[in-house]
């Protein structure tokens, strides 16, 4: 087959290069991409190195795209490969070790390196920059053996390094040439406040000192300054600036100045070669922060995808010091000049400082110290050079009263470029901008607009906070949120309407309740189908077309479109005969992997859709419901049957419970565990219902979760007999079925409902318990094994599973 | 020169239920065929434009839109265009019912 894709080769596996690639992939699949990077790692978040040094993150935490990602995207990755030059005539890239790679388009994203002062002794062991993982590990190592560290450079990076080293227990002095710290980002006032604060935190300063020499025998022992004075140090970090990596361009005859010269489309002087990130020089500026290079990447991506772009016009940069616990922020012009109108507020007691600079009454720059809650809005004003008004003044400078009692949200202090949604790579800034620019008022809208919270949902609370922080008071009055974008009705309103109006199908619900989207969406349809079935277990006709694929096909869909089959293993117990059958079927149908799951079952991964019914038939085992919002597993320990500690028969009870409650629909997946004694080997504390045997009976725990948002289960009650145990378990399940929101796990449900309420309903109020049991028993009468059902239903077999191979007319 | 479309018979009308996709396999390619509530048939390539790919047959159908089963992208069956906030487009094919037969033109 002829490959019609163009070859795009990216030189540099850093933040700019890969971000550009990600943006390209979002827009087009026209390119076959190869990435070459000199570091031995996959792409990581360089910004976060400061957190690694400080100890709050590990290197694994800051990997942005692991090796699997490159594979999944079809990208060829070479790590540990140094590119030497580009042959523009032959369109070929040469690496130092002799590899040659052809390209149609090349992107240079080689970033920069720490600038090392050209002074005697700079080669001594113990002298390093602060740039990559290697530097970071060198510092972590040094801190284990040595005590004294010096950091040359009182800028952003130097201060972050210094703070990290102090945290590692070192005695740290920052040597700075200038009178003021971070003089490129802060004015004199803010700088002095910052220095005072950092001194309080244990960092020492040697200001206005010029380092002339590094001395030492086998390793650095100290610095000598131009005035002859000395400072002892057995680790020296140079953080005096960066030097764009332009060697590749120079070797290839591409025009360079300080960086690689690019035009507004980020093209270099060589045809079909682009540059992005810290190595690029645009309109005379080399940017050293990520926000601008993401903007550059977006221009390249649009251009390469053939979409319209106005080109890159430069960025307004803003800075925040990340880890010192002191908030500083600056943007635009911040050093006062005669033409500026200056608004300042300094509070020496609260240690805050705020300065806004106006030119011709437009906001052109700002410095904030101590309280950066206005940074998001100020950044916007600066970028847009907004006209100052009374309103904005009031918002920025307050009315003069204290803001006491106003809760500071952590979202406020979060850096703009911090990734909020790790799954989809959405930064705080992207969210804040989306809210401002599109007038968003709900998390769902943010999700639709930016993709944040869309995958695992773990970042939802933070997104909510950002929303609250950006909207301020209007947050509370923001539009009412329904269960999805198709309605403003809540779950409770819908359930009530189904009951009182006697609605029987999703269509009817949507028609009668005025859905905005005639046939609903992938969120409300499954939810409505569940509520209808929960309310009318006997009469409701399950709607296959409103089920998520897993529940429609009764197997887990995997990313390659194959499915996973999981037979039931009651209480996690199986037999040699069953194992044999599982092995035989797995071989016959070429199962890719047989995996033992966390819930004590076997996953048969990689079954083709059309083989599913045959696999079920030949297994001849009940469906394990690993795909469903239903009772998944009952995890058990060995218990009194075999364990020398066990006081209760956990395996037996596990099997009883699993057989009794299998196949019933729940708002979300549901897991149980049964333990023979308080040693808790089956880990009850992270299950929806966890049961722990004791000498005289059982203790029941509810609301545990080991998933997205881990939560330890709460103790609900203790019971004496097995019958009581089964009753309470059943009534908790039914209460959850009746009052839980679709997709709401019990961990959230318990917190929303309150443990005491649940205890009242299922433990204290015996009548209510009986009623719940009656209803769950009724629902249980309606269930049937879906695998068996499909095997015996030729139509569904055909329509749902068969693949058609057509014939020509 | 006018080239006449070649029509492939992909099944009988009753093999295509409402709002449930069917997979058609042609050599190495797959096509997903959907019948909407308005009784219109649509045929599209059975591969999500999401960078991670994946089949579309198992999508949930709503009006003339489908929701990608793996990553929930919303795609217009008429144009193949992915709806905001996501971007992309899938190939669409002409499909028609000819008596009892369902036919696709490639
Ligand atoms: C400790 C630290 C903290 C920071 N904090 C912030 C912050 O809070 N906010 C902020 O906005 N920015 C911060 N920055 C800056 C930010 O990390 C950079 O602006 C950004 O990483 C630059 O991206 P880049 O792709 O241009 O370069 P890089 O991320 O450096 O990537 C370049 C890659 O190219 C590779 N390479 C170089 N030459 C070659 C070659 N010839 N062949 C093959 N590969 C090559 C390098 O190994 C490197 O992996 C920080 C930087 C550091 C070091
Ligand atoms: S929980 Fe108790 S009974 Fe069960 S295996 Fe552990 S020690 Fe044995």
Automatic annotation (TrEMBL), chain A:
Cofactor details (free text): Binds 1 siroheme per subunit. Binds 1 [4Fe-4S] cluster per subunit.
UniProt domain NADH-rubredoxin oxidoreductase C-terminal: residue ranges: 318-386
- Residue ranges of the Nitrite/Sulfite reductase ferredoxin-like domain? 557-620
Question: Cross-referenced PROSITE patterns, in alphabetical order?
Answer: NIR_SIR
Q: What sequence ranges are listed for the domain BFD-like [2Fe-2S]-binding?
A: 419-468, 483-532
Q: Which residues bind [4Fe-4S] cluster?
A: 637, 643, 677, 681
NCBIfam families attached to this UniProt entry: nitri_red_nirB
Q: What protein does this entry describe? A: Nitrite reductase (NAD(P)H)
From TrEMBL, chain B:
Q: What PROSITE patterns does the annotation carry? A: RIESKE
Task: Tell me the InterPro entries matching this sequence.
Answer: Rieske-like_NirD, Rieske_2Fe-2S, Rieske_2Fe-2S_sf
Recorded hits in Gene3D superfamilies, A to Z, give: Rieske [2Fe-2S] iron-sulphur domain (2.102.10.10)
Domain Rieske, by residue range, is 7-104
Q: Which UniProt keywords apply?
A: 2Fe-2S, Iron, Iron-sulfur, Metal-binding, Nitrate assimilation, Oxidoreductase
Q: Which GO terms describe its molecular function?
A: 2 iron, 2 sulfur cluster binding; metal ion binding; monooxygenase activity; nitrite reductase [NAD(P)H] activity; oxidoreductase activity, acting on paired donors, with incorporation or reduction of molecular oxygen
A Pfam family matched in the record: Rieske_2
* The keyword Cell division belongs to this UniProt entry's keyword annotation: no
UniProt GO BP: nitrate assimilation
| Record-given protein name | Nitrite reductase [nad(P)h], small subunit
């Amino acid at each position: 087959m002829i490959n019609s894709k163009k070859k795009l080769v990216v030189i540099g596996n850093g933040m700019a290069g890969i971000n550009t690639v990600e943006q390209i992939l979002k827009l087009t699949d026209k390119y076959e991409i190869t990435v070459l990077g000199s570091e031995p790692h996959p792409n990581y978040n360089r910004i976060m190195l400061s957190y690694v040094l400080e100890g709050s993150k590990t290197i694994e935490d800051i990997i942005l795209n692991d090796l699997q990602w490159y594979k999944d995207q079809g990208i060829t990755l070479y790590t540990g490969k140094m590119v030497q030059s580009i042959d523009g005539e032959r369109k070929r890239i040469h690496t130092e070790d002799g590899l040659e790679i052809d390209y149609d388009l090349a992107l240079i994203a080689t970033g920069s390196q720490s600038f090392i002062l050209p002074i005697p002794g700079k080669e001594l062991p113990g002298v390093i920059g602060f740039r990559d993982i290697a530097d970071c590990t060198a510092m972590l190592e040094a801190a284990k053996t040595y005590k004294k560290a010096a950091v040359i450079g009182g800028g952003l990076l130097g201060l972050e390094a210094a703070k990290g080293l102090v945290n590692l227990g070192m005695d740290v002095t920052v040597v700075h040439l200038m009178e003021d710290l971070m003089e490129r980002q802060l004015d004199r006032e803010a700088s002095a406040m910052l220095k005072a604060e950092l001194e309080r935190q244990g960092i020492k300063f040697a200001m206005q000192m010029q380092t002339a020499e590094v001395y030492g025998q086998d390793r650095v022992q100290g610095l000598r300054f131009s005035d002859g004075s000395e400072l002892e140090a057995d680790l020296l970090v140079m953080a005096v600036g960066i030097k764009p990596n332009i060697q590749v361009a120079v070797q290839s005859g591409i025009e360079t100045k300080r960086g690689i010269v690019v035009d507004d489309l980020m093209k270099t002087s060589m045809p079909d070669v682009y540059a992005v990130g810290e190595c690029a020089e645009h309109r005379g500026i080399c940017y050293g922060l990520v926000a601008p290079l993401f903007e550059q990447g977006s221009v390249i991506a649009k251009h390469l995808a053939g979409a319209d772009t106005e080109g890159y016009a430069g960025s307004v940069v803003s800075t925040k010091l990340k880890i010192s616990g002191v908030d500083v922020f600056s943007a635009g012009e911040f050093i006062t000049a005669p033409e500026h109108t200056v608004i300042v507020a300094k509070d020496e007691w609260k240690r805050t400082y705020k300065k806004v600079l106006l030119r011709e009454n437009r906001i052109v720059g700002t410095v904030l110290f101590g309280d950066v809650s206005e940074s998001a809005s100020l950044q916007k004003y600066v970028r847009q050079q907004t006209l100052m008004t009374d309103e904005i003044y009031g918002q920025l400078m307050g009315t003069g009263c204290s803001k006491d009692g106003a809760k500071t949200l952590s979202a406020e202090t979060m850096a703009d470029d911090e990734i909020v949604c790790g799954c989809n790579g959405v930064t705080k800034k992207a969210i804040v901008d989306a809210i401002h620019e599109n007038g968003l008022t709900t998390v769902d809208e943010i999700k639709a607009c930016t993709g944040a919270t869309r995958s695992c949902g773990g970042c939802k609370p933070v997104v909510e906070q950002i929303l609250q922080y950006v909207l301020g008071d209007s947050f509370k009055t923001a539009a009412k949120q329904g269960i999805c974008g198709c309605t403003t009705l809540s779950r409770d309103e819908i359930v009530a309407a189904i009951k009182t109006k006697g609605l029987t199908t999703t269509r009817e619900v949507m028609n009668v309740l005025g859905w905005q989207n005639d046939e609903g969406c992938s969120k409300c349809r499954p939810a409505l189908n569940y509520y209808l079935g929960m309310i009318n277990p006997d009469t409701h006709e399950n709607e296959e077309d409103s089920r998520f694929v897993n529940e429609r096909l009764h197997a887990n869909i995997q990313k390659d479109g194959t499915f996973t089959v999981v037979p039931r293993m009651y209480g996690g117990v199986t037999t040699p005969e069953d194992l044999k059958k599982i092995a035989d079927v797995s071989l016959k149908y070429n199962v890719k992997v047989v995996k033992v799951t966390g819930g004590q079952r076997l996953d048969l991964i990689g079954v083709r859709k059309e083989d599913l019914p045959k696999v079920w038939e030949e297994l001849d085992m009940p469906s394990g419901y690993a795909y469903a919002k239903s009772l998944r597993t009952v995890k058990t320990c060995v218990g009194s049957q075999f364990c020398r500690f066990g006081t209760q028969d956990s395996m037996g009870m596990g099997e009883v419970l699993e057989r009794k409650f299998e196949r019933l629909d729940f708002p979300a997946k549901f897991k149980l565990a049964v333990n023979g004694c308080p040693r808790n080997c089956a880990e009850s504390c992270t299950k929806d219902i966890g049961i722990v045997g004791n000498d005289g009976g059982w203790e029941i725990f509810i609301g545990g979760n080991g998933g997205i948002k881990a939560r330890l289960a709460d103790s609900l009650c203790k019971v004496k007999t097995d019958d009581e145990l089964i009753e309470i378990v059943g009534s908790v399940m039914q209460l959850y079925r009746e009052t839980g929101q679709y997709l709401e796990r019990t961990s959230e449900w318990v917190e929303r409902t309150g443990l005491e309420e649940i205890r009242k309903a299922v433990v204290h109020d015996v009548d209510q318990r009986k009623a719940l049991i009656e209803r769950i028993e009724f629902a249980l009468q309606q269930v049937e094994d879906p695998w068996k059902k499909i095997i015996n239903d030729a139509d569904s077999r055909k329509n749902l599973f068969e693949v058609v191979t057509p014939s020509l007319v | 020169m006018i080239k006449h479309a070649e029509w492939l018979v992909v099944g009988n009308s009753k093999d295509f239920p409402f709002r449930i996709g069917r997979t058609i396999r042609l050599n190495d390619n797959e096509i997903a065929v959907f019948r909407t509530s308005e009784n219109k048939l649509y045929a599209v390539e059975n591969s999500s434009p999401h960078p991670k790919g994946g089949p579309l047959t198992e999508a949930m159908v709503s009006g003339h839109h489908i929701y990608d089963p793996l990553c929930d992208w919303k795609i217009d069956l008429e144009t193949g265009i992915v709806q905001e906030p996501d971007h992309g487009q899938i190939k669409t094919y002409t499909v028609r019912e000819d008596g009892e037969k369902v036919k696709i033109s490639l």
